[in-house]
Predict the 3D structure of the following.
Amino acid sequence: MLFPDYRPRRLRKNEHLRRMIRETTLSVDNLVYPLFVTHGKGVRRPIKSMPGISQLSIDLLVEEVREINDLGIPAVLLFGIPKNKDEAGSEAYERQGIVQRAIREIRKKASETIIITDVCLCEYTTHGHCGIIKNGDVDNDATLELLARMALSHAEAGAHMVAPSDMMDGRVSEIRECLDENAHEGIPIMSYSAKYASSFYGPFREAAGSSPQFGDRRSYQMDPANSREAIREVSLDVEEGADIVMVKPAIAYLDIIFQIKEEFDLPVAAYNVSGEYAMVKAADRLGWVDGEKVMMECLVGIKRAGADIIITYFAKEAARILRGKV
Ligand code: PBG
């Protein structure tokens, strides 16, 4: 049927009609809020390029997790800012490391919020790379053992889920084996499966103090021009035992999210990264876009593309809107 017999506008006449035929609904259940935890007490260190986001010491972090739980957000993703960095990123897998301590405190004092931990060495190494350096590049196999130790130390502290973001080959099976051998077979792995070497991570590197001190991450993170390679990366992670697969960043990679959702039957997560957040905030401050509306449009777009889970710095703001609490 064609115009004038068929008129798509008939179903767009008012909000009730639009609601009836809406194909995608964003829910607070889909959101995960990233948090940066730092040493000290009473510390709230705002991140300049990410308005509204701060590094928090454990005491304030616990309060923040309570607020997140009250907003109905089911999970947080924890990143640690260590006291000291070294070549091997030792604080990443210490029992008294910042993330391990934070997990124990949250478990003790705040709610049943799901605690997911980022498993990667870049915040903890002096050189800022995601693994051990040999001959000027990250040594894949030497890094695996440390990542597994890091994941295990998080599980032992009480993390509910681990999320490796390093992009080393074989890390999912190494982590799975290590968790299983140590009676943590019930801890799921959310793998950053298709993680691109992206300039959208800029503000995060200020937030986490994790900029590479030489070179870049292109020898381990993916080339933004590739999509078939993303399918291959996800297949490997699925075979190695990933429970949730992730695409990162989100907005510039919606086609990847779509393809992964079509191809695999595991839950798909998308990471709406720091640069994507910063751009919306900056344009909103300049009065160039309505930040709130653009935020909701981005989030629904990520969901429409196929993401079941959206990791986003907007989680609190979006949750308030979704729950009608603004
Ligand atoms: C650690 C890690 C990064 C991000 C999440 N985990 C940075 C990177 O790979 O350089 C980026 C998150 C964001 O930009 O919001 N490897």
Notes: The pocket of PBG is lined by residues 118, 120, 122, 130, 165, 201, 204-205, 210, 217, 273-274 (CB under 6 Å). The radius of gyration is 20 Å. The first strand starts at residue 31 and ends at 38.
